[in-house]
Every structure is written in C-alpha cells, then in structure tokens.
C-alpha cells in the first residue's frame, strides 16, 4: 500500500525492467513449472516465498504473522521477505526465472508484467472474488482477465483543521458538499500564512476533480484515452481559478513536500490526501485536531481516486495452488482487519467495511468513498504519460488547459497502438 504520496511514477523502474525482459513467465497457457497439477495449477512441495514492499516494522511483522498462521494450519512452509526496492527485486526475479511465488504488485505496474506473461491470472479462481470492490477488480483486469486479488486500498478525502475552522467562524453545517461551497470555505480560511486548501500538483490528487466532473484520464478499464474531455477541462479550470484567486495553493508553493506536511504545519487549513495521512498526523503532528470528510461533489456528482496493490502470483511458481490458497486467507475479512489494526490499510472486500468503520469511525469517509472511487490508469506505459502530465500541472496556474489535455490525450492514445 502506498501511503504518503502514492505516485504512478513509482512504477517506472518496474516498467523499464519488465519491458526489457523477454517473455520469461510461463503463463497459464504455457509450459508448466515442475510439480504436479492441481485444477490446472502447479502443486509442488517446496516452501512459498512472499515478497512485500513494507511501510515499516509494523507491516512486516503483521504479514509475517498472518503468513506463519496460514503455514501452520495448511502445512505448507512459507517465508516472507521485505524488499529494500520492491520494483527492482521483482524485475530481477522475473529476469532470472526465479521470482517470488507471491508478491505485492501496484495497480500502476501490474499490466507490464501481465503483458509479458509473468503473472498467473488467478482472480476468477478465488472463492471470494465477488466480495472485492468492483473498481478494485477493474484495476487488476488486463485483456478481460482478472489477474490478482486486491490486497487493500486507499481513497482520497478532505481533511479539515478543526481549530482553524472554528476560528474562521465556520460550523459543521458549513462542511463543503459542492465545489462552490469548497471555494467559499477555503476563501474564509485563507488568512496570513494559512491557505484554505493546499494539495500537491499531481494528477493523483487533482484527478479526483476530474472524476467529480464526470471524467478521468482513461476509461475504467484503461483501454481508451479520455483525457481531452470537456469534463477534465472543467475540473482543471476550477483548480486553476482557485490558484489564481489564492485560496488554493500547491505544496511546492508553501514550502511543503506533500499535503500532510502543509496540513501538519498549519500552512493549510484543508488538504486532500488518502488514509495514509492518519498515521503521519499521529506520529509527526499529534497536536493537530482535524476531521475527515468526503470530497465535495462536482457537476457530475461524487468522485474520488483510489490507490491499490494486489497479491501477485508468478506464472513460474511451482506451487500455484498453495499460493492461491494463501492469498485467499490473506484477503479474508479476519486477516484484512488484522492488517488494518497493525498498520492502517483499508480492506479490499466489501464484507469487511463495517468492521473497519466500527474500529475507525472518525475515518469512515475514506471507506465510504469506495462507492464512487475511480482507479488511476493501468495501461502499459501510462506511468510515463502521467509523469509528463504532472510536470505540466506544476504550472497549472498559467497553463493552457486545452493544450495540456490534448498532449496527454495524444500520449495516452499512442499506448493503445
């Protein structure tokens, strides 16, 4: 789970490594690795290897504990390794023909591996496949195949500094539910060194407004570019107007590295971040009182972006059958709620939502937003395009929005061949 600043650009290293490979994965339809078959899956006797990209000791310990519990009950040995550089180690594993059996895989990079035949497309085999949020399933679907189980996810919401809110004379009834209301309260909150709303300039934040206007960079399955749309132009024009008026600033313009820092240092009365901000506020800015509310609806209604990882399984795994069973356990309600308690992610299955909200009622806006969340582009090569877009969005205040979106449309369309 990417927490503080989830970026599509994080997949560039992995993408480069994958595209440099030949078709090293055997794939479901290719020659099987050694081991007997179990329902079309390989079934060996060796230990499973699990490779994760950990946020810290708490996450590593939690995954090791849940895998150990499964190993004890199933009789299949399994080891967990926390990667120092997940993308690099994944690429190296596939290149050598000895990848981990099970591993974290980001939505922004998985299509690169799927295209090369390196992944087992096991999603339709999962007993709980109907329990995953549909938008998450779309994020891990390539050429109409559901490849891997979403392991958890994040959405964007609006964080409000309650002390600054009260000082501005605002009430609970003033919490913005529309773009116009967001502008109104942000103007009232902008005073001295405090800006009403501060966000990063990335698509990974501003794209939420595209969804609220009825747009996004690509369609839900990342098979068609939709960047050059009236909805996206309307969204970026709204942001641009806020920047010009001064009630909205980018983090770079207030001397902060990300929205959580600007918010924690009270340079921002409001910011837009995912549920990773809760851990950062607790550890870095424990004295700041704040509340989390859904993003205000736009012209097309409610919208937000989601970020997610899945549990990938290697096509070359000699024990795919056991790997699938392990993933089913790790994405069960009990295991996902245990992970949430240990290091904060939201469960990827709908049946665990109520349990998560009961545990974290103050943060329910994050998981409630799953109902209208849209995924980021997952098409092979889209990370490069989004990186280029982000560089242009840094100058959005004075940019020609039509030209900016036209260039992005051209670049994304080129990915479709």
From TrEMBL:
Belongs to the bacterial solute-binding protein 1 family. It comes from Amnibacterium kyonggiense. The lineage of its organism: Bacteria, Bacillati, Actinomycetota, Actinomycetes, Micrococcales. GO terms for molecular function: maltose binding. GO terms for biological process: maltodextrin transmembrane transport; maltose transport. Transmembrane segments: none annotated. GO terms for cellular component: ATP-binding cassette (ABC) transporter complex, substrate-binding subunit-containing. Keywords: Signal, Transport. Residues 1-25 form the signal peptide. This is Carbohydrate ABC transporter substrate-binding protein (CUT1 family). InterPro entries: SBP. It holds the Pfam family SBP_bac_1.
């Amino acid at each position: 789970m990417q927490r503080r600043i989830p970026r599509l650009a994080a997949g560039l290293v992995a993408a480069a490594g994958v595209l440099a490979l030949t078709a090293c994965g055997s794939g479901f339809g290719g020659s099987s690795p050694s081991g007997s078959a179990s329902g079309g899956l390989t079934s060996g006797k060796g230990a499973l290897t699990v490779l994760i990209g950990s946020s810290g000791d708490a996450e590593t310990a939690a995954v090791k504990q849940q895998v150990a519990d499964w190993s004890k009950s199933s009789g299949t040995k399994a080891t967990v390794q926390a990667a120092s550089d997940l993308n690099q180690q994944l690429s190296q594993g596939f290149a050598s023909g000895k990848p981990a059996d099970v591993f974290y895989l980001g939505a922004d990079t998985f299509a690169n591996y799927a295209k090369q035949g390196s992944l087992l497309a096991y999603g339709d085999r999962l007993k709980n496949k109907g329990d995953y949020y549909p938008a998450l399933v779309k994020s891990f679907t390539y050429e109409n195949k559901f490849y891997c189980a979403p392991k958890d996810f994040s959405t964007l919401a609006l964080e409000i500094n309650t002390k600054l809110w009260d000082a501005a004379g605002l009430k609970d009834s003033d919490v913005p539910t529309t773009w116009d209301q967001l502008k109104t309260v942000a103007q009232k909150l902008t005073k001295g060194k405090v800006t009403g709303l501060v966000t990063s300039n990335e698509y990974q934040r501003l794209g939420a407004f595209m969804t609220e206007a009825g747009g996004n960079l690509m369609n839900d399955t990342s098979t068609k570019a939709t960047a050059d749309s009236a909805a996206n132009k309307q969204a970026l024009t709204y942001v641009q107007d806020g920047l010009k008026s001064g009630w909205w600033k980018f983090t770079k313009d207030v001397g902060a590295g990300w929205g959580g820092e600007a918010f924690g240092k009270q340079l921002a009365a409001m910011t837009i971040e995912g549920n990773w901000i809760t851990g950062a506020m607790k550890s870095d800015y424990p004295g700041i009182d704040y509340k989390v509310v859904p993003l205000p609806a736009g012209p097309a209604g409610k919208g937000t972006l989601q970020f997610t990882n899945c549990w990938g399984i290697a096509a070359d795994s000699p024990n795919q059958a056991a790997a699938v069973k392990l993933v089913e356990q790790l994405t069960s309600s009990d295991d996902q709620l245990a992970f949430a308690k240990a290091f904060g992610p939201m469960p990827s299955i709908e049946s665990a939502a109520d349990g998560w909200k009961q545990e974290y009622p103050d943060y329910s806006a994050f998981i409630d937003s799953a109902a209208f969340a849209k995924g980021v582009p997952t098409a092979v090569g889209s990370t490069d395009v989004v990186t280029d877009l982000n560089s242009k969005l840094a100058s959005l205040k004075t940019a020609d929005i039509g030209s900016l979106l036209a260039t992005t449309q051209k670049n994304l369309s080129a990915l479709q061949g």
